[in-house]
Amino acid sequence: MIRPRRLRNGERIRELVSETLIEKNKLIMPHFVAEGKTKREEIPSMPGIERVCRENLLRDIEKDLNAGIKSIILFGIPEKKDDEGTGAYSENGIIQTSLRALKRRFPELFVITDVCLCEYTSHGHCGVVKDGRILNDPSVELITRTALSHARSGADMVAPSDMMDLRVSSIRAALDSDGLQDTSIMSYSAKYSSAFYGPFREAAGSVPQFGDRKTYQMDPRNSREALKEVFIDIEEGADIVMVKPALSYLDIICRVKDSIEIPLCAYNVSGEYSMVKLMSLKGIADERMLVREIITSIFRAGADMIISYHTGDIYRNGWF
Ligand code: PBG
């Protein structure tokens, strides 16, 4: 008689037969760094996550490192926004100055930077806008300048999240001709147009002022298109590709994983984080158990690494 429950009877045997190994070093912690007057500000829709100034970022990173967190992704919030998102690629922008300070203080830290214009543009779109349209090639030019300035300021990896066509090859060429062959590219390849980005847009003040992002971010109904985006980015020179968000897209993670030979990152996004936080604060479910199940499911689907706002809690509370 075959009885599957024999292998679930006790903790020891469950450990021995478990198929998914969770490795904390594969988690990446996001940080929001703000220019200007903000010193430290909780993001109302993301309990536990803050916007901080550069000095406080350095303090927080020191705590992260002491807790064991060695990989981060940085998002910048400029003081002023304009139509061309100048703050994104300015030599003394908030990300550029933060990178130089971080790399000086914590050379062992692995720093990824989100490369996009939406936090820096007055219209909130991820590119250059003309007559109500988001222009691809002029946007790629500015995205490339942004990536290059991050790399020159010390980013270990740049992560374009704009979803314009041809940006990966443009960034790769710019980095290579600047002697930055060792700076890697993680491409937000299959980035879906998602309601789960709501809290992030509050955090970064990047709500589009007109229209939506559907002409560049992917349609949630599509899955073969995710493979197409991923293959294009690999051809263009991406070192790592990403699927985002994670939870409603576990099928995409699984499908992409089975089809590629380079590492795959999944982004457990802001709205996914907020759902967990709000449920736990309301006493509807146990936060630790939710987080463990969610992180496990994303790894089980095939992610090699995960960007998650839960990373801080996981390390500080010893949840894995
Ligand atoms: C910038 C960017 C966004 C996110 C990461 N980079 C927002 C967006 O596309 O609107 C979302 C991250 C999250 O929700 O946690 N383009």
Structure keywords:
alpha/beta; TIM Barrel; eight-stranded parallel β-barrel; 12 helices; 18% strand; binds ligand PBG
Any chance you could write out the topology, listing elements then pairs?
Elements: H1 11-17, E1 27-34, E2 40-42, E3 50-52, H2 54-67, E4 71-77, H3 86-89, H4 94-105, E5 110-115, E6 128-130, E7 133-135, H5 136-152, E8 157-160, H6 167-177, E9 184-191, H7 198-204, H8 224-236, E10 240-244, H9 250-259, E11 264-268, H10 270-281, H11 287-301, E12 305-308, H12 311-317
Helix pairs in contact: 2-4, 5-6, 9-11
Residues 114, 116, 118, 126, 161, 197, 200-201, 206, 269-270 line the site of ligand PBG.
CATH fold-level assignment: TIM Barrel
- Average the pLDDT over all residues and give the rounded result: 97
How large a portion of the residues is in β-strands, by DSSP E? 15-25%
CATH architecture verdict: Alpha-Beta Barrel
Classification by helices and strands: alpha/beta
> What hetero molecules are in the model?
ligand PBG
Large-scale geometry: globular
Read across the widest sheet, the strand sequence of neighbours is 1-4-5-8-9-10-11-12
- The run of helices and strands is HEEEHEHHEEEHEHEHHEHEHHEH
The fourth-level CATH homologous superfamily is Aldolase class I
Top-tier CATH class: Alpha Beta
Number of strands: 12
